[in-house]
């Protein structure tokens, strides 16, 4: 589950390094890959900066959800219309739906569990991204993206469906936060 508490127990969370690798395909909504070091001790890779409809935002490392073919038990992506293994017809609309009937096709592999940590993480990543964009601008034609060793062979296209799913989640979080603020406000005022 991707539950997130809204308390402020993120005080121990310290981002000590962010590395940013800008992508260079203008058709791709993926703007950069990032790796984040926490407390000089733990690295999380494959965070992404995605160019959303309301500007760039940070996406956590994620995987596409899959299920098993009812006939041969091969794993297929939830949108697959045919089994990759035996070719059986599958229902491309079989993904679990949220309360508004929208499919959930991805799950985050690592993510903050409270809003303070989320805010700290996003601030650090967005700052590092902005600095890298600035460095690229300054260097102009002589800019070379940083080498991340095996990071260099990573390549993802951000499809519209994933982007939509991420933006929907953001909106839901925002709504929940406002709701909670409203409830706290009422409690304080009443
Ligand atoms: Zn099958």
Q: If you had to describe this structure to a student in words, what would you say it looks like?
A:
The chain has 190 residues and is of the alpha+beta class. The protein has one domain: Stage V sporulation protein G (Arylsulfatase, C-terminal domain). It is built from two helices and eight strands. The chain has helices at residues 115-139, 160-189; strands at 15-22, 30-38, 42-52, 55-59, 62-64, 66-68, 75-77, 106-108. Strands 1-2-3-4 form a four-stranded antiparallel β-sheet, sandwiched between helices. A two-stranded antiparallel ribbon has the order 5-8. A two-stranded antiparallel sheet has the order 6-7. The two termini are 34 Å apart. Bound molecules: zinc ion. The site of zinc ion has 8 residues, from loops.
Architecture blueprint of SSEs:
Layout: E1 15-22, E2 30-38, E3 42-52, E4 55-59, E5 62-64, E6 66-68, E7 75-77, E8 106-108, H1 115-139, H2 160-189
Antiparallel strand pairs: 1-2, 2-3, 3-4, 5-8, 6-7
Residues 69, 71-72, 74, 83, 85-86, 88 line the site of zinc ion.
């Amino acid at each position: 589950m991707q539950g997130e508490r809204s308390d402020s127990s993120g005080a121990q969370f310290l981002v000590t390094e962010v590395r940013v690798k800008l992508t260079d395909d203008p058709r791709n909504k993926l703007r950069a890959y990032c790796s984040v070091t926490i407390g000089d001790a733990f690295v999380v890779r494959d965070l992404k900066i995605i160019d959303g409809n309301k500007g760039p935002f940070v996406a956590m490392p994620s995987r596409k959800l899959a299920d098993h073919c009812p006939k041969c038990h091969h794993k297929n992506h939830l949108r697959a219309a045919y089994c990759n293994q035996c070719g059986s017809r599958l229902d491309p609309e079989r993904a679990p739906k949220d309360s508004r009937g929208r499919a959930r096709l991805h799950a985050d592999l690592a993510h903050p569990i409270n809003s303070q940590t989320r805010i700290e993480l996003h601030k650090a990543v967005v700052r590092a991204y902005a600095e890298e964009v600035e460095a690229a601008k300054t260097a102009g034609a002589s800019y070379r993206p940083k080498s991340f060793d095996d990071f260099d062979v990573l390549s993802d296209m951000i499809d519209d469906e994933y982007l939509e799913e991420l933006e929907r989640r953001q909106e839901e979080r925002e709504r929940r936060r406002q709701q909670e603020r409203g409830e706290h406000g009422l409690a304080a005022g009443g």
